[in-house]
Write the structure tokens for this entry.
Amino acid sequence: MDLDHVNKILITCAKGISPFLEKEIRDLGFSIESAHQTGVVIRAAFIDTYRLNLELRTAYNVLFLLREFRCASPADLYSKVYQLQWENIIPNGEYVSVVSQVSNPKIKNSMFANQKLKDAIVDRMVKKTGYRPDSGPERRNIVINLYWKNEKAWIYINTSGMKLADRGYRKIPLTAPMQETLAGAVLLAAGYTKDMHFLNPMCGGGTLAIEAALIALDKAPGLLRSNYGFCHLKNFDREYWRKTRKERLSACAKKLPKKIIATDIDRKAINAAIKNATTCGVDHLIDFKVCDFRDTEVPEEGGIVILNPEYGERMGKINELAGTYKEIGDFFKKKCAGYTGYIFTGNLELSKKVGLAAKRRTPFFSGDIDCRLLEYEIY
Ligand SMILES: C[S@@+](CC[C@H](N)C(=O)[O-])C[C@H]1O[C@@H](n2cnc3c(N)ncnc32)[C@H](O)[C@@H]1O
């Protein structure tokens, strides 16, 4: 396939994040064809997937459409997939992984569709090249996605390979971490820029502070990773990719004009946050401290302060947490004048204990939990 071949590109994201993803895509100069709760569709050239993978903070996968067709049965799927020229896409000896999402009353198990899809690709490769590609669940090489809804099917090359949310900097698992792409979307929703101080008490593993540092440096999150699905394809332009990355790297800022402060009462959380920030290369830009959230340093000149307290679903108990939410409200009122305060929570009952009227409530999901980013103007 030619790198300048133009077709639909489906960019997927976590539920509810698509308004932020849409904005990111528009800011890169693409126009949107359609958007839904878990994805955005654009039309662009295959080569554009390099830049989309590199730049997008809130996307999961960048999927380039190979073919859409009517598909009435598994046999139909096999024959239509077999007709695609896989020998022009997959180099000999590459490892291929297939992922299927099926919503068809006749197909009870999407593993069956997966098997048919894989067989068609492998059989075609054997016939045309004499080589049988290895295949399995690992998404570190070539990934092919199938969506099959009723009588219609779409086959995509997953140019990301592994999810873009897996930036690779989170080395120490902690309880209830915020996903990297969700943290990116929360910061975009809060309008964070490098020109404001950013305070993140209750920082846990530091995801929000680390994502803020990346935004402030204008560092494309994709620079943190070197392995993408498109790197394994026959049409991979290694030199163009090297040049694109190099130019993007030199466009990043080197230092920050304002502060990023991340604190947590738990020493283990701060140790993990420092380790994560070090892996990400932004540890020197964040002031970490072990302390109660109320003792977080609040520099003058204002900025934004975001807290992601426990909300009783995965940690802590709701009654015990009511006092904490009230104390967050008191902290905002007593110490954070001139700042815009945010609480990210999955428990709206607890948020009523804050004792301040939220000026804006932005809906999000953390997994399947209905969450809100609550905004408070603090005078
Ligand atoms: C839901 S986790 C935050 C997760 C974080 N957003 C991340 O991505 O890892 C809540 C954090 O609040 C911290 N915490 C709880 N009570 C605290 C308090 N009184 N002062 C400071 N931190 C507190 C916990 O140690 C925990 O790390």
